[in-house]
Structure formats: C-alpha cells, structure tokens
Design brief:
homodimer, 266 residues, four-stranded parallel β-sheet, 12 helices
C-alpha cells in the first residue's frame, strides 16, 4: 500500500502546480495525475455538471489503485468533495480547498481573509464556510477572477493587460483591509508576481498547492502510508485530450520538459 | 419538411450570433439550437476530440428532425465538417467557415485576407484552404486570438485590457497589407468595435454569422425548403449545461432576455 501512487486529479493542467508541490514535499512518492483536458474548464460550469465530472475523474484514478486521492481542482473541492469521497470507498481524500482554508486561518492576524477563484468556487462560498468552521470570527471576502486562467494559459505572466485585469478584479477586495489572500485556483500561482505587485507586500499570499502538499504529508504519516524509497522520478500523466499546446503548458506549469502522457477516455 | 426547424449547433453560446443573423435573414423559420456548454470550449482542444464532439452534437440535433444543419462553430467547421455530413444522412449542411471564406474571397480587392480564430481553427489552416479553392491567387494570413473568447464572455467589450490584447494579437497580421479581415470565431463579433478600432477603417470586417445566414437562405431557396408562414418567434434552445452566467451571456449575445432553455445530456 505504501508503494501505491498518490492519485491527483484536476479539470485540466492547473493541478500540475499541486504535482510540483507534492514532488517537493514528498520526493519518494509515486504520483498518478489525471487532467480532464477534454472537458476543461470546470469553473464556469454548473454544480450538477461539476459533480458528474468529479465522479468520472475519481473513477479514472481508482483504476490505478491509489493510496490517497488529492483533489487538485478548487472548483471540485468546493462543489463536489463529497462525491469524490463516496466514489473512492475508504481511501483518504484531501483537497486544495480545505488545505488552503486551514493555512489561511492559521496565518491571518487581523481575521480578514480574501479569496480569489473561479466563478463556481466563489459562488459556492465554500472557502468562507471552511474558514468559518475553523474560526467563526474570521471575515472572508471573495472575488471571481475568470480571466486569470486564460491569461495564465496564454503565457501573459507579466503582461500590461494582465496588470490591468488584476487591478480591476482586486480593487474591491483590497478595500476590505484583508491581511491574507488565498489563491483559490491552481492556475493563479502562475500569475503570482502580478497578484503580489497589485496587492502589495503587506498581504500574505496563500498558495493552496503548497498547503495541500503539507496536508498530504501529514495525512500519509498519520495513516502510515508514507513511501520510504524512491521508485519513479516522473509522474504518471493521464489526460482526456492532448491539445496542440499541451507541452507548452506543461513547461509553463512544471518548468521542465513534458514526459510521456497517456490519453484516456472519460 | 418546409416547416421543420433549421438545426444550428455550437460548442457553447457563441453560435447565438448565428441565430440572430438567421432570424434577421429568415424571419419565418423555426430555429433549433444546441450549445454544448458542458464541454465548451472546443477551440483549445485536439482534432480527435473536436471530431468526436461534432458527431455527438449532430446526433443531438437529428433527434428533432431538422431540414438543414448549420455548423455555427468555426472550430467544428474547420476540423470536422465531414463528420457532420456523415452523421446526418442526406440533409444539407452548411458551416460558418465556408460561408465566411466565400464572402471574404468576393470582397477582397488586393487579394490579401486576414483570418482570426481559435488555436484549433488557425492551426488547421482551413480558412486558407477554403479561400484558395475559390481563388488560388489570394494570400491568407491567420492569427489565433485565444483571449478574445474569455474577454467577450467576461463582458470586457470596450475595456483597456481588451484593447491592449487586440493590439498585440493583430499587430503582425496588420503588417501584411490585408484589406479584409474574417472574424473566424462566433464570439468575435461581440468585440467587433475594438477590433475595428485596432485595424482601422480601410479594412473590411467579415462576420461569418452574417455570411452563413445569407448562404443558408440561398441553400433553402435552391432546395425548395423555405418556410413561408411564421410558426414560432423564439428559438428552441438546448444546452448540455446551464451555468450561473448563462442568462447574462444570452443577453450579451442576443440583446434580449433569455427564453426557456432545455437541458440535455450528451
């Protein structure tokens, strides 16, 4: 069981930021990643559809007998974590949302947290609920940033247009006196520099990819499921579509050349 | 047969620009529209996946016995028109790409045409091939504009960020001395004002929605399939997902309040 892979899924390739964080935190683990690139994005779709896709994605990972499932998609974490838990029997499940919420609640000093994410994540108010379960006194302010994903995927990392869009999206949330900002979408770390410049140095940025990697390490230790010897160095990648730009995007997210990728049908 | 609906499909809601153009050109016709909103967008996906989705979309329309099928998606028109033709028996099929290509070839004076569209449409070079079939002397220059769809859907119609992005995308194609520019994606007419301002008044803009409406009228007349009495005023709308923003987007594309919409499974 210890040598079984960590199963990670996302709506597309954004979850690779989680793969990278897991690799850094848990270098001995085998990683299995599924990106539903044929149906990406999820964040603009309805709860009904996101829940259906979440069940499909979990079933895909279950074929490979993982020892834990990490939901690297904030939208699924917000709208369908229970669907994942029901679809995977007794496996431990963790998601970027709970991990990000826990880290943010621990970091804030003035109890005012901002959360940015997709339309579906923000509308669900799942971050607000998760943070308030940990500490009911914290005020949470959220803002959907639908253009951040396409801007990141287009490689407009430090582009004047991205700066204009960031200034517009973040202006209201900045007036709320927050001291902590959660990047509630796995694509957003790609735009971290512009986001940091826009909100200024006083605000602590929480990257939910780092948060979930820490949470996974704890969970594996508690469950006695840690791997102790290196088995494979590259993640096993499954995708439902292999578009032309895939290798460019892999390079953007992982900072390394794309390994072999397996095309699967959902 | 004359009273059967005109079947139109698109990857999402962009094809509503075609519905609007058909309503204007053919006010007596019943319109059936399917938008694959659960799997939108197509333009960033591979040819294999787009062809699979095109077959599904055609099958969806065929349940309602249309008299003609209009492919309102440029990406499907470019990558999978043959799939649609094979999936619908002997029905006439027309697509935005052929119609746009024909109109552009007729309009250009200096035989230099620009085409903008999704990554998949541009990579296929389908516009270039269609235009050169009509006139081998015409030179076609194309440019993918991946951010135009999300900018349009976010309602950034006249936003400074949209102007910056348009200036960047269109700069190279503008240096080619084109006199005609095809909007090779059904979302782009929403950004027409910014595109016109960027390319200047000397360049004729071709909206493939208008082009396909004219082509459909001719095709129905030739086939003796025109309707002569008004039966229904509102289109019959089918979608595979009904996200929160759907009614806002309907309003943006159609300029009127959203009628009843039927949710279907692909």
């Amino acid at each position: 069981m210890n040598k079984s892979p960590i199963g990670i899924f996302d709506s597309g390739i954004g979850g690779l930021t989680v793969v990278k964080a897991i690799q850094a935190a848990l270098p001995f683990e085998r990683i299995l990643y599924f990106g539903d690139t044929a149906r990406v994005p999820y964040g603009t779709k309805s709860q009904v559809t996101v829940r259906k896709y979440a069940a499909d994605d979990t079933a895909m990972l279950m074929r490979y007998q993982p020892k834990i499932i990490i939901v690297a998609c904030n939208t699924v974490s917000a709208l369908a974590l229970d669907v994942v838990e029901k679809s995977c029997g007794h496996l431990p499940v963790t998601g970027v949302l709970k991990a990000g919420a826990r880290l943010a609640a621990g970091v804030t000093r003035n109890k005012r947290i901002g959360v940015i994410g997709t339309q579906a994540t923000v509308s669900s108010n799942a971050y607000g609920l998760a943070i308030n379960q940990l500490n009911a006194e914290i005020e949470v302010f959220s803002q959907a940033c639908p253009l951040f994903v396409p801007l990141a995927e287009e490689g407009f990392i430090d582009h004047p247009a991205t700066k204009l869009v960031a200034a517009e999206y973040l202006s209201e949330i900045m007036q709320k006196g927050i001291d902590t900002l959660v990047l509630g979408c796995t694509h957003y770390p790609i735009l971290r520099k512009v986001i940091e410049e826009t909100v200024g140095p006083e605000i602590t940025i929480i990257d939910s990819a780092d948060a979930v990697a820490l949470g996974t390490k704890e969970l594996l230790m508690e469950s006695g499921l840690l791997a102790f010897t290196q088995t494979e160095s590259t993640p096993h990648l499954l995708v439902s579509d292999l578009p032309q730009k895939f290798s460019t995007l892999y390079q953007l997210f992982m900072g390394s050349a794309m390994p072999d990728v397996e095309l699967v049908e959902v």
